[in-house]
Specification:
The protein is α+β, with helices and mostly antiparallel strands. About 50% of the residues lie in helices and about 15% in strands. Helix 4 crosses helix 6 and helix 7 crosses helix 8.
Amino acid sequence: MPWSNQNGGGGPWGGGGGGGNNQGPWGQGPNRPRGGGGGNQPPDLEDIIRRGQDRLKNIVPGGFNGGAVLLVFVILVIFWLINAVYTVQPDERGVELRFGKPKQEISMPGLHFHIWPFETVEIVKVTEQQLNIGSRAGSTSGSGLMLSGDQNIVNVQFSVLYTINQPADYLFKLETPPQTLQQVAESAMREVVGRRPAQDIFRDARQGIANDVKGIIQGTMDSYGAGISINAVAIEDAAPPREVADAFDEVQRAEQDEDRFVEEANKYANQKLGGARGQAAQIREEAAAYKDRVVKEADGGAKRFISIYDQYKNAPEVTRERMYLETMERVLKNSNKVILDEKSGALPYLPLNEITKQQADKAKPTGGN
């Protein structure tokens, strides 16, 4: 046995030596069976229990029976205090219930007391929480598949950021607020995407779609009295289904090429239009200059004619003769002319014009050396 003497040594509770001096755990050696017999025997269980009761009576005041009642009472009081006192953390709010009915007061962060078991408390986190909806592109799950307004299927993954602003409503107006919020968010996103073409959700109008979805979710949750405030809706990913992703990529590349061609055409048109506008401005400037010149020349000619006319009125004969002479001078200045005097007796059949032309040709300088 574990307490038997080995090689003359003591048992596990001390003591040594031989015969009859072995000590048990309560200071006495184990009882040996009556009638003698050699060897060590296990202790008597009844004797151990009796000795333990005697020691407990000495410790507990009022005896074993009165002390047990007091001990049970103290244990019950401690258990009641543990359940009656609770702590609310800074990111939490507490709602106390009296006979299952929530109180109007909200327990703020700190240590609080309530009358348990007639009153209980429900703790709610009021920090911003995130609800992820939809599956990533390439996933086999179809939770994010939606039909767009142009009859295309898109896979939308988005998240809803929300806080609990009315803890009592959040706890007791809806049975499962997170599941309800998820269903409302999915329905709102499908409604908005179903009214728009797929191109809007891919890149053109994501922010506008997110704002529309946020408004629908907030209005629906307010109508339910859920006590939830929607802070933001973020579209994290929007892609075509995996089966038709290649076709959508081709469409995207074609649209990008179209945009590029349109930009190049606009650039070319702006260049040509700028050149045409410059030429038009130049022509307008030249026309304006020509107009001014012609008008001024006409004004000068009119003034000159008026001045001559004024002089003509003063001396008509002189002015008439002067005008005649000036006109004849302009006419005869560059013309070939032969002056004949009737008294010279020149023959009328001589080719005077040809002779004059030959003389003029000889008078011209010759080229070369």
